[in-house]
Amino acid sequence: MIRAGRFTLRPWHPDDATAVRAAFAGPDMARQAPEPMDAAGAAERWLAARVDDFASGRGWSFAVVDGDGVLGNVAVTDISRRHDTGWLSYWTVERARGRGVASAAAGAVAAWAFEEGGLFRLELGHRTDNPASCVVARRAGFLVEGLERQKLRYGDERFDVEVHARLASDPAPA
Fold this sequence. Notes:
Layout: E1 2-4, E2 7-11, H1 17-23, H2 27-30, H3 42-56, E3 60-66, E4 69-80, E5 85-92, H4 101-115, E6 121-127, H5 131-139, E7 143-154, E8 157-167
Helix pairs in contact: 1-3, 4-5
């Protein structure tokens, strides 16, 4: 477990399926899911993948929780041991947005990935039409490195992605 201010980061459990289904129920999150989470067994498959990645060292996904339950997810995936790098991602449930949950979780898991996970560089990207995600990245100590034009496609629409990175040698965010 990792402490992130008033929040706790813990590995996902198979019994978190209800929370996962609820998190991906809204249209903004539904398009982020690998499959519709209301499909039979979808949340369980999503959780099994997180648990398997953690066990194998391919990635570390944490449920962000407080006394009211699951507030979101923060993860380091695409880990390259050759280069000591990883890709950081995060999401929060609607009721947790605007409360500093994602910034606290992203900053805490980045510090953990550097100190405990042995990584040197973490990268993340967000759609340029998502300024809240940019605020999360900056507050977690990630510096802007560039723009990937029309990188993502959802349906027929393409989106630019702003890329950020944080190095183990960067100063910790204030």
